[in-house]
From TrEMBL:
<dbReference type="InterPro" id="IPR051402">
    <property type="entry name" value="KPR-Related"/>
</dbReference>
<dbReference type="InterPro" id="IPR036291">
    <property type="entry name" value="NAD(P)-bd_dom_sf"/>
</dbReference>
<feature type="domain" description="Ketopantoate reductase N-terminal">
    <location>
        <begin position="5"/>
        <end position="157"/>
    </location>
</feature>
<protein>
    <recommendedName>
        <fullName>2-dehydropantoate 2-reductase</fullName>
        <ecNumber>1.1.1.169</ecNumber>
    </recommendedName>
</protein>
<feature type="domain" description="Ketopantoate reductase C-terminal">
    <location>
        <begin position="186"/>
        <end position="303"/>
    </location>
</feature>
<dbReference type="GO" id="GO:0005737">
    <property type="term" value="C:cytoplasm"/>
</dbReference>
<dbReference type="InterPro" id="IPR003710">
    <property type="entry name" value="ApbA"/>
</dbReference>
<dbReference type="GO" id="GO:0015940">
    <property type="term" value="P:pantothenate biosynthetic process"/>
</dbReference>
<dbReference type="GO" id="GO:0008677">
    <property type="term" value="F:2-dehydropantoate 2-reductase activity"/>
</dbReference>
<comment type="similarity">
    <text>Belongs to the ketopantoate reductase family.</text>
</comment>
<dbReference type="Pfam" id="PF08546">
    <property type="entry name" value="ApbA_C"/>
</dbReference>
<keyword id="KW-0560">Oxidoreductase</keyword>
<dbReference type="InterPro" id="IPR008927">
    <property type="entry name" value="6-PGluconate_DH-like_C_sf"/>
</dbReference>
<keyword id="KW-0566">Pantothenate biosynthesis</keyword>
<dbReference type="Pfam" id="PF02558">
    <property type="entry name" value="ApbA"/>
</dbReference>
<keyword id="KW-0521">NADP</keyword>
<comment type="pathway">
    <text>Cofactor biosynthesis; (R)-pantothenate biosynthesis; (R)-pantoate from 3-methyl-2-oxobutanoate: step 2/2.</text>
</comment>
Amino acid sequence: MKTRIGILGLGGVGGYFGGLLAKAYFDSDTIEIVCIARGETQKAVAQNGLKIILDESEMTVFPNLVSNNPNEIGKLDYLICATKTYDIESSFESIKNCIAPNTIILPLYNGVDATERIQIAFPENVVLQGCVYIVSMIVAPGIIKKIGPYEKLFFGSKNAPVSKLKELQSIFENASIESYLVENSEETVWEKFIFISALASATSYLNQNIGGILNNPENKAVYISLLNEITAVASAKGLALPNDIVAQTIIKLEKSPQDATSSMHRDLLANRKTEVNSLTEYVVKEGLKYGVATPIYKKILEKLS
């Protein structure tokens, strides 16, 4: 029996990492990669493959199966999900029959509440915690563009079988995915959330890319205020984050492509639905819950809502 891995969501994250998995295991006798997609994306990938554009090269890969039909997809051993946070419940509803009690689910979303939301829907399953650092986006259905060399995938769990965690890590490593199996997965996910929440909120509010945030003192001050507010919320929640988390996050941003921006900002510019509820409003709500003031987040939320 092959180990069957489903990729739910072929956007910048799911499309890129799913593409690397599809390339590595196309002719595998032990692993099958199933891309779960619908509409124009399903049609494009089925006909032309999944195209990934890098800075100096590109590749086209063909997953073992591209489908949105649960009967075709069948039961999955692992499910890697990377849709937008506002689509979590609806996307899982459409493939619930593909999830067996032993299916291990790895969420790779921008927010921090995905594991909890999925666990409520599938209480019998092991739901990991995970996050990625990458600048990638959809160019067209079935075409993903990745900018810059930086890419890291982190995942872990306090209750998952160690053998399954190591098996997944081995699957990633054999596909040349830079992945890290971490013990403190909640803190790791929150470190990423601090980075992306402040960036998404600032770029969307100020209508600036990363360079426009870092190279303008007033814009940078807004960004740093957001970092301080969200870090205070994390501290109130009892998370053991590094004392210099704000400085570390700024360094991460300085290493990012200056002409890049957040996916929420790109969605806003394209008049698409945004993840403001998960990336901005969530911080305001958690601040209220734990008695932490978040005035800049509130101001941005009022504008973006």
